[in-house]
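Before the break, one more example. Copy the sequence into your notebook; we will annotate it together after we see the structure.
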Amino acid sequence: MLKVFEGLQVDFSPFFSEPANLPFLVAGIVSAVVWAIHIFIGGPKVARPLLEAKLGNTVKYTQYYCWHLVTIVLFVMASAFVYSAFRASDLGWVMTLLGGAFALWGLLSPPFVKQSYLNLPQGWLFVPVTAFGLWGLFV
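Here is what the structure looks like once it is written out:
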């Protein structure tokens, strides 16, 4: 029950359980930042040049479709972590597992394709998401 001001109380219990799982909340906020980076930095630096590249339409638009799938998954990840911060849910561990897989793939793949982490830093973005998610599993 949240007391807004004298005599007025708002009951959020149908929506949120108390207390909140703070590490899941932080994982959700960090995931939302990753989503914003993907859109506002990655869009101009990756998606736009991809569309301008001289590739076959099937390759080009399949990659562009995958770009949007990632956009959706990142939004869902942020939303699921925030939801899990306030409601007991299996979504928290599922998103932690997904973030861990993204981090692992993102950290292992640059050396395999002989690229530096300066060129492919995406895996590092999921390390704090995964760390806060793991912490949230034990709160």
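The chain has one domain: 18-137. Strands lie at 2-5, 8-10. Try to locate both features in your own notes.
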